[in-house]
Amino acid sequence: MKRKNLLPVAVFAVFFVIAAFIMQGFTPQTELPSNIPDSVWVVLEKSCYDCHCDDGNGMARGKLNFDKWNGYDEEKQMKKAVAIRDEIEKGKMPPKKYLKKLPDAALSDQEIQRISNWVSVKEQ
Ligand code: HEC
Question: Whose C-alpha lies nearest to ligand 1, atom 12?
């Protein structure tokens, strides 16, 4: 009698484990930009992602949200990439106030160059 009663429980447990495995495969880990090269992304993540993400600054993520990047169409990605280059070349982003708090977020000339190159290659 006891054994019989346990069978449905065991079946349920097995299904639950299988379902959990399948769900894990379907749940996107984090939707990070898939077509930004790693060398560029490390810089953007360090200096920009704080504000330009779903949990970020309301105004900032309205204009540019890296959590939504994969959903931007090609034309929009291109426009945003050009805007990114403009902002960093003019030294407008990251904002000065932010750099006062987090000096490590400042971009080196080399990092600015790396992002400019990425945008120029994209433009061709
Ligand atoms: C402290 C938060 C903060 C950080 C860090 C930050 N931004 Fe911004 N960003 C903003 C805000 C707020 C706006 C919207 C207001 C504005 O345009 O000044 C914005 C706007 C922008 C825009 C849109 C400009 C426009 O008018 O279309 C771009 C592009 C941008 N940021 C790029 C960057 C890049 C690239 C970095 C990293 C190098 C960065 N931001 C880091 C807060 C931030």
Answer: 60
pLDDT in tens, 74-86: 999 999 999 999 9
59 lines ligand 1 (CB under 6 A): yes
Closest listed residue to residue 92, CA positions, set 80, 81, 104, 84: 84
121 touches ligand 1 (CB under 6 Å): no
Please list, in sequence order, all residues whose beta carbon lies within 8 angstroms of the beta carbon of residue 83, skipping any fewer than 6 positions away.
63, 64
- Could you tell me the distance, in angstroms and rounded to a whole number, from the CA of residue 93 to the centre of ligand 1? 6
Residues of the chain with pLDDT under 50: none
Question: What is residue 10's predicted lDDT score, i.e. its pLDDT?
Answer: 78
Side-chain half-sphere CA neighbours of 109 within 13 A? 0
Question: Residue 79: what residue type?
Answer: K
Q: Provide the pLDDT for residue 9.
A: 80
